[in-house]
Amino acid sequence: MLQSIRSLVEYRDLLLMLTWRDIRIKYKQSVMGFLWAIFMPIIIVAAGIMVKIAFSYVSKQPLQTEHIVTIAVKSLPWAFFVACLRFSSNSLISNPNLVTKIYFPRIIFPVSAVISQLFDFVIASSVLLVILAFLKVGASLQLLWVPLLILILLFLALGMGILFSAANLFFRDVKYLVEVILTFAIFFTPVFYEVEMFDKWSTLLLVNPVAPLLEGLRACVVLHQAPDLMWIAYSGGVAVVTLLVSVWSFARLEPLFAESI
Amino acid sequence: MSDDQAILEFRKVSKKFRRGQLHDSLRDLLPSLAKSFFRGRSSKDLGEQEFWALRDVSFALGKGEALGIIGPNGAGKSTILKTLTGIMNPTSGERIVRGSLSALIEVGAGFHPDLTGRENIFLNGTILGMSRAEIREKLEEIIEFSGLRDFIDTPVKRYSSGMYARLGFSIACHVSPDILVVDEVLSVGDWAFQNKSMEKMKGILGSGATVIFVSHNLKAVTTLCEKVLYLEKGQVQAFGPAKEVVDAYIRRASAQAQEAKIEGKPAFIEEVRLKNGTEDGSVFRPGEKGVVEVAVRAPDWDKGMAVALGFRDENYNMFFYVDSCRLGAPEFFLGPGESRTLVFEFDMHLAPGSYFLNVALTHPQLDQVLDHRAPALTFVVHSDVDVRGVANLYPRLVER
Question: CA of B1, closest CA in chain A: separation in Å?
């Protein structure tokens, strides 16, 4: 673990350049360019709002600003998480030339993939911040939880991304598995709904380590309450263990990359 | 670290590869994966589908030395480089690298087609181990060297393959590591760019860097390197001073070419030997005497015969031709059990370079070729004075 962090520091220029490359090429030859970083989340939020409208129509309860804000606050981190996994799990196999021809710590690939997604996330979040201020959602000291929650989400994304990128190199099956799981995960993750809607089943939903984070974000940004610390600790634990295991296995498998890709 | 300590060392390095697909089914995949995950594949024995890409390769290189690695295709040259750079781990044995290492295994690896030339300089430069500050400092120099100033802000996907390679080489040769590993990249670009690259390589060598150089260009190897490692089928055939090893390589390659089919031919060339003075040799200095011996047999041919020699340059253009008739020996005859050796002498007034010698056994009147060896031999002319072309006019600068 320490070794990996040290090599990332040593190769920070490369990490930066690869991240920059990923950001740069993502919007090349597109008319909208960087605006996509804002449009994509807007589309997701719009989808969520439509789901909410349908809910409120069925349950005959009026739609409130609070619901819409909740959707936005939850779907941005979720979109970030999904993009991280999708992008980082392909990060090694999409650079076969670099993997077989030039040596540098391979962990740079999934890490830079996650960082480049973080860049989009930061842009979208800043826009969301402006909108939240405009909607007079208000601020409280509970907002101080947000960086921690995001950090745990980032660790989780990194851990899973690093693991998937290596697994994907050996078995392309992983690519399809990740794709399928991510497509359906939105049903098991409280993005467009809240876990409290499920009463006694809510515990089961919170086992998904992303769920407590999203609920936590809703609690501190929208409801101005402290997040459920027990569940946040659970997510944090899962994130750290995932990260440790994935970095360890990545380092073990790294020498085989060039001949197995 | 003292100066005489080897900066780079291989100790009995072996590398095993698998033929065919990595895994055929889930059934043989899971056990092998579990094994490699927990133990690493270090077994000394070969599996059914496995072969040695490298076998007990040992060598050491001091600071500022240049090592050339030569050998036929598939000899394991690139595997050595990949093991050296850490892209692959050896199956067994040990590699020791003291200092920073930059590998140029393929020019332009890591270029992104959508990025411009300038952006790719930064990207590729950092991939090769430069810091961004260093690149900013050398940017002008790199652009100038590549000769692509007008296109530097064009995406490289619009480049021709020559431009692509030139940019790649320009970046790579501006990295200044302790150890530079170069794999067959001097052959990029046009003639003028190749000369420029060669000069640049000499400059890098002159600056005290340790260079490992893989090439099929024997002339470049003898010019640039003091030491040469000759590899075949993953094993070291020879390691030592450039001239001797290149010579051994050429002789071995020629000997293999000589094992050509002779059955069914009424008359054939039995052996062709090249001597440098009195000893077997294929590396000459300009003006040195070269002796070509051609041994001929004719089990089923009672008509006259002559031996023809053709010299060709690196581009396979014939620049000199002679045969035994022209040299005043009329056609000769051989009985079924007889053999004859014709000895030709030449003064090798040639420019530095590698050359091919083709030998043919002909029937002079009928213009019929009975047997031919093309090329029968390869040889290298090596000189301190670097001139271009084939003939050597021994230029001197008398007044400057």
Answer: 22
| Interface list for chain B against chain A, based on CB atoms closer than 8 Å | 17, 22, 33, 36-37, 40, 82, 85-89, 103, 105-106, 109-110, 112, 114-115, 119, 122-123, 126-132
Domains in chain B and their CATH numbers? 8-21+39-242 (3.40.50.300), 260-381 (2.70.50.60)
Mutate to test the interface with A, among B92, B127, B131, B182 (most CBs of A within 10 A): B127
Find chain A residues with C-beta within 8 A of B214's C-beta. Answer: none
pLDDT at residue B3 greater than cutoff 50: no
Instruction: Give the single-character DSSP code of A221.
Output: I
Identify the burial level of A142 via C-beta atoms within 10 angstroms of its C-beta, where 0-12 means exposed, 13-18 middle and 19 or more buried. middle
Question: What ipTM was assigned to the predicted interfaces of this complex?
Answer: 0.85
pTM higher than 0.80 for the full model?
no
CA distance B109 to chain A (A): 6
Domain that residue A157 falls in: 2-260
Q: Do A21 and B36 lie within an 8 Å CB cutoff?
A: no
Record: contact B89-A253, CB cut-off 8 A = no
Domain count, chain A: 1
Residue among A103, A170, A259 whose CB faces B17 most closely = A259
Query: Model confidence over A196-247: pLDDT tens digits?
Result: 888 888 888 889 999 999 999 999 988 888 889 999 999 999 999 999 999 9
* Residue in chain B lying closest to A12 (CA): B131
State the amino acid at position B218 in one-letter form: L
Task: Render pLDDT for B337-377 as a digit per residue (tens, 0 to 9).
Answer: 888 999 999 999 999 888 989 899 988 776 788 888 877 88
Mutant choice from B28, B30, B87 vs A, greatest count of A C-beta within 10 A? B87
